[in-house]
């Protein structure tokens, strides 16, 4: 049986490399200069620079039925998250906050967040490379896949991986989040991709069957500012998506 760590590596590959991706740290020297997004403006979906837009009819969106607890307000935090963070989010007192996506991960006695060294070990990057991504030295617009955060449940190995995929670097710049999941799911029978209301936004979502050693995956994807943001829950043992999502809540930028 494979170790949980090797299982997590498989999940990252499945989550971020489904389009035939190669390495997390690949760069494109011809990429335009990165401009920091405005974290004070909440964006659910927006048009890309190439005109690609995600549009969803209200009737196509179903509730995720996941309880996310009370929202976290940036005004209640010790650090001014709206200005003192990069597009990858930031860590404060063991918790993770990401204004770009609009979510917070509240670590507790059960769930923990990986630090840069641990993320580096799982993804195959160096600790310096992870910190470069986290602290904005390297832009997510210049890499194919970026791992922003990994939360894990030590007792079972269940985990949540937040990653960014840049479709432009895979010559699929018009790809929507739903199309990404549909492409990911095409090798599985009876996997349905649907639009769901999750964390106050419209995500594409799909539940994948269990694979030996790697658990069951539930993915949520959304496109923002030309990036596809992917939330991959991997469930081990008797853990449920409801339990795993319970420590993830909406971040309100104020």
Structural class: alpha+beta
- Poorly predicted runs of 5 or more residues: 6-53
Q: Whole-number radius of gyration?
A: 17 Å
Oligomeric description of these chains = single chain
Number of discrete helical segments: 5
The neighbouring-strand order within the major sheet is 1-9-10-11-12-8-7-6
Care to describe what's here?
It is a single chain. The chain has 254 residues and is of the alpha+beta class. Helices cover 17% and strands 29% of the residues. It has five helices and 13 strands. An eight-stranded mixed beta sheet has the order 1-9-10-11-12-8-7-6. A five-stranded mixed beta sheet has the order 2-13-5-4-3, with no helix packed on it. A hairpin with a 3-residue loop joins strand 10 and strand 11. Helix 2 packs across helix 3 (127-134). The longest helix has 13 residues, at 4-16.
Compact description:
This protein has 254 residues and is an alpha+beta fold. It is built from 5 helices and 13 strands.
Could you outline the blueprint of secondary structure elements for this entry?
Blueprint: H1 4-16, E1 61-63, E2 72-73, E3 90-92, E4 95-98, E5 103-105, E6 111-113, H2 116-123, H3 127-134, E7 145-153, E8 159-165, H4 177-185, E9 194-198, E10 201-211, E11 215-224, E12 227-235, H5 241-245, E13 248-252
Parallel strand pairs: 1-9, 2-13
Antiparallel strand pairs: 3-4, 4-5, 5-13, 6-7, 7-8, 8-12, 9-10, 10-11, 11-12
